[in-house]
Amino acid sequence: MFLPALPPNYLTALTLIDAAHAQDPTLTTGPSPIPYELHYAQKMTRLLAKHTPDASPALQLACRAQHFQRWLTPRTTHPATRAGYLLWRAKLKTLAATQVSSLLTSPSIVPPLPQSEIDRIASLIRKEGLSSWEVDAEVQALEDVACLVFLEDQLDAFEAREGMGEEKVIAILQKTWGKMGERGRAMVVGGEVEVTKGYNETPSTQ
Fold it and tell me: Does residue 115 carry a pLDDT above 50?
């Protein structure tokens, strides 16, 4: 399944995003190692195509950039507590949105992306609109895809961590399920993702 072709200026933006991902020093452990965040971004795009085959250009770029330069702010930069985790997650979203917004003003993107579109992409990366009464469908799509990538690519690594017993794994699965919308859950139930079959390099949580 394929996503709608991006206009040339959006394609240039995607190339710039991938160039940043390619700087991640952590490599996948598959047969053809690549920078982990580039691998993650490509998997986000692949699963977005399954989840929302008519995804807008803004949603495509937001999905591609959702872990933007995450390796620069590892989980260990914040306390190993629930509060520390939430603070880390909030900081990551804000940082990514700010960095991507700046990147999308690059003079190499011709014609320039409208500021309204850059603002929309940043809003999607910050996942604004998930907690409101009327959930933003595109934000939910991005959240679904992130959860699907976690299940397909990272869950096995979590299970292998020291001290990660069955109860903790079940709790993680329950929280992940709770974040997902109807379409994301249907993909899991329908076997459209290969749960726990991924690389064992997991430099960050969801």
Answer: yes
